[in-house]
Amino acid sequence: MHQRRLHALDNKMRILTNSRIKRHLFILFVVWTGLFLLPLIYYITWIYPVYRVPKSASYEGLFECSYQPPLNLLFPSWTPAAQLPVAHVLLQQSNGTVEMVNGVKLMENFTWKLVPNTTHYVFSAFWDTRKDSFIRIISIIDKYRKAPSFCRVWHKTVGKDGKKNESNLRISTSLRKLSVEIIPKGGRYVCSILHCDVSKLLQPIAVSVVRDRSVKETGPPMLKVVDRQPNWIKGKDRQIIGVCIQTPLFDYKNFLKLVEAFEMYKILGAKHVTLYNYTGDPVLNHVLQGYVAQGFLDVIPWPLPREIRVNTSDGDDKQGVHYYAELAAVQDCLYRNMHKFKYIVFMDTDEVIVPRKTRVWMKMIKSLPQDVAGYYFKKAEFNLAKAKIRKNSTGHVDQRLLKYHPPYILTRHRFRLIFEFNKKCCFKSIVRPDKIWTMSIHWAEKADGPMHETKAYTGLTHHYRSHPMTKRLQTLDPYMTRYEGQLMSNIDNFMQSILNVTGQSH
Fold this sequence. Notes:
The chain is built from eight helices and 29 strands. It is of the alpha/beta class. It has two domains: 71-79 and 233-501, Spore Coat Polysaccharide Biosynthesis Protein SpsA, Chain A (Alpha-Beta Complex), CATH 3.90.550; 100-226. The relative contact order is 0.14. It is found in: Membrane. Belongs to the glycosyltransferase 92 family.
């Protein structure tokens, strides 16, 4: 009996051992098969599509795209203007007449002004009545010094009879409290918005910033307060879409890149562009003046104070102001265009927010949620180092491409990094300006409502930049060729108009 039990137990152990061995062998087989198949799957899925050139897209006869505009070809006798700013500023005053305060004409002169007895600077002021009544003052604040705490406001008041008709109004001054909103990026000097409370005042027309209540200021106001037109009607006088170029121009010479970007914005639905000029090259003069003459562009001088070190890279210098004070330019553009456009697109000249299901921005926006303050768009980087232009169906290359050498959008086969930037830091935005209080570079810092994160298959930010030695996987993305004919015609028409104006047409 005992031997029978031992024999049965021995059989069970053998069966169990055999099953374990089989299980281990199966796991080992799966692991080794996986180790063999995974690289194969990886190659078939990612590497092969990227580097395989199908017959329909043969590279025979292609040439590398040139990124430097052929100046000798386009403008053989062009002598660039020696002086900056690179274009005129065509900005309307807040009304048809020039107001006078203390014998001084109230006009924007687009310079950074030093707040007396401080190391703080102010640039522009805007009247905001969305919630209560405030003057928003675009400024650069020295973090190492006490921020200003008061503003002196020149405003309209009614006469003795209490009537508010224009002929009966007079100008008074009031000292009001000031709050400081610092936009968190930078070194010693940070871009900020000063909020001057003007509730219960009739209409502010000018403002100065003072260090504290004890400072006695008797001089003229520092800034004209920008307001909408007196006869402005909400919904009637507001255009659909405007563009704010975020980074001020600095040492910028590639005018064809600018033309390509602006004409692309027109195709997508932009009615106007606002651009800030730090040290744009005079070679841009004729191009920018051409767009200003069209009413498509405002160029605002951006002469940063000499006393402030200007950081020229994204790395923050502890003593300077972040990247040409671009955050201040963004706030200025937001408030300057708040009543002009229903939507504002914030991006740089090497970026395009591209609808991936429709051809224009508004159709894309209409397909997205409407009860939001704006829309975020993920970024995809396109490698400038591998741009190619292909022959057309007749076996020839468009002669306009050979003539102008479009810098980045109009390449038929653009290598795009497969990786998409999903982080908030890499978004670009289309916003409803009447719902935005503060903008950052990549997102809305303060908004009156949620922001919608758009799926990449609906809209994507194309960022064109050089990655000469990138190790990231890339794929061909010819999506922008759908705009090729229209964009090339726009570029050619604009450049011909510039050549005719300068007397250099061929």
